[in-house]
## 1
Amino acid sequence: MTIERSLVLVKPDGFQRGLSGEVLRRIEAKGYTLVALAILTPTVEQLAAHYAEHEGKPFYEPLVEFMSSGPVTAAVIEGQDCVRGFRSLAGATNPTEAAPGTIRGDLGRDWGLKVQQNIVHGSDSPESAAREIGIWFPGL
Ligand code: DAT
Ligand code: MG
């Protein structure tokens, strides 16, 4: 049994479209527990830490600009294998390619504004989750 935690963000596109509740609904319906929840507008400093692995890539600057453009819903979720499980719920990075049944596949599409507008973020490993939870929920 590995009870994990994962860091989920409903990105500015998802927040603006009123999809925070739908994302949280799917998380709870899957059987994961909400441990922490916040609405905040990310700072560039938070995003630089969060997306450090992508620094220098061509999409990095537009990604940080987009992610700091408005409020996000940040959540820490908990459950058996929830890191992989939420990635599975979220679907492929590109919403055009994400399978039906997934958050990105059901609710996302290419808006002509690149794949950065893909509704949600989910940690990609338990180690990433621990690091990211420290950025968005220090002290948790
Ligand atoms: P994921 O969010 O599925 O973990 P990632 O960590 O590789 O994907 O990338 C982080 C975010 O950056 C992703 O959600 C959207 C954006 N992104 C990734 N690859 C991109 C690309 N080739 N062009 C534009 N944006 C991209
Ligand atoms: Mg990632």
## 2
Amino acid sequence: CGIFGASGVDGAAALVALGLHALQHRGQEAAGITSFDGDHFHTHRAMGLVGETFSQQNEEAIRALPGSVACGHVRYATTGETALRNVQPLFAELSEGGFAIAHNGNISNALRLRQELVRTGSIFQSTSDTETIIHLTARSNYDQLLYKFIDALKRVEGAYSLVCVTREGMIACRDPLGIRPLVLGRRGDAVIVASETVALDVAGAEFIREIEPGELIVVKGTEIESHRPFPPRAPRPCIFEYVYFSRPDSRAVSAGRSVYAVRKAIGAQLAMEAPVEADIVIPVPDSGTPAAIGYAQESGIPFELGIIRSHYMGRTFIQPTDEIRHEGVRLKHNANRDIVAGKRIVLIDDSIVRGTTSHKIVQMMRDAGATEVHMRIASPPTKNPCFYGVDTPEKAKLLAANKSLEQMTDHIKADSLAFISMDGLYKALGEAARGEEPSHCDACFSGEYPTTLTDQRDRETAD
Ligand code: 5GP
Ligand code: SF4
Ligand code: MG
């Protein structure tokens, strides 16, 4: 998901809409904005893309969200079904007044907390993990909203970057490990928070710094007050943000460079670790493109766009018959035949999850006349699900969790297959190697989850 907040600026909701546009890649399922005008809260949430809900043609939607403070969300479902009641910001009337919350991440003890809350009288309006934070806040014994909210967060485990709007202003915070990103910016005096710096660029704001792991800021108008409610811990930001999730023009704050530069460095490292004799390097667009540029530059093998991607193939596209869908990837990707025919190619993608994409694309390259297809992957094998807000399927469906390298190579029918090593990935981030206490969360590759996984443990004992 993606989150964005603006405070201390007239028409804050219009800025939030711009920011959400820039964060669209983080969630295409639904979008919403809540504003506060000094007296009343206003919310508009809808299924679909930001541009459909908050477009120029739909000025009404923005005009109906007056106020100088607002927060918004783009959704990509990881828990809770796809329904309007789960679309954020979630809103509740607490004893201190209205409270709107937008969340990126996933709470890994949400089910356990929900069971306890429901048993003792809470009535949930959604199936979203985020709603547990609202109930815990409402029930806290502290006497100010801020301290109630902090009290609630102390009971929550997992990943959360949050932006909230209350009668007092805006609150933004990041979980103690900083698993999901959150950055701070200013547009003139106005205070902006966003999942990625690209949203600051698009909203005309200047990047100030990241919200630090475990930091909570209270914004009243244009004033920022920083709190440190949690005991200090070594941060573990998600490494997969740099591999796949973030937009390449965002800043990879913990690496001190752009995400694009990190991806190119990953590609260069991959070329050193897994060289191959070939005629051209081809990315699986768009996710494999920066790594392929790095691979091509490091290896000296020419880079070509041997696959063209349709930018009109959304996730919400209604699939035709099964038969047509099976040939399906051509809706999204098509071979650039003249480039591919008669060539030995290196194909670069960011990751293999189920193996569907690689399998289809290798075949597509062969159909287009490639003589050899060597697949190179810009991340280590994805062997474990993410419980922190990235939608990886259960372990049984992860190709690398169930097959050896040789079996995977057979499965996707490539001439060869290689993944970047774990140390290589950290080298691309500018570190010597992974280290005993890694600087990032890499659990989907390593299996070392940086938090307890209460709900997952409960599920396993129930099985
Ligand atoms: P597979 O086809 O192996 O299941 O998935 C690999 C492809 O999915 C890669 O091209 C990669 O860019 C993309 N991918 C990796 N992680 C995610 C994710 O969390 N969400 C979505 N929508 N795509 C992903
Ligand atoms: Fe990121 Fe993977 Fe950790 Fe999930 S498990 S937060 S995707 S590194
Ligand atoms: Mg992809």
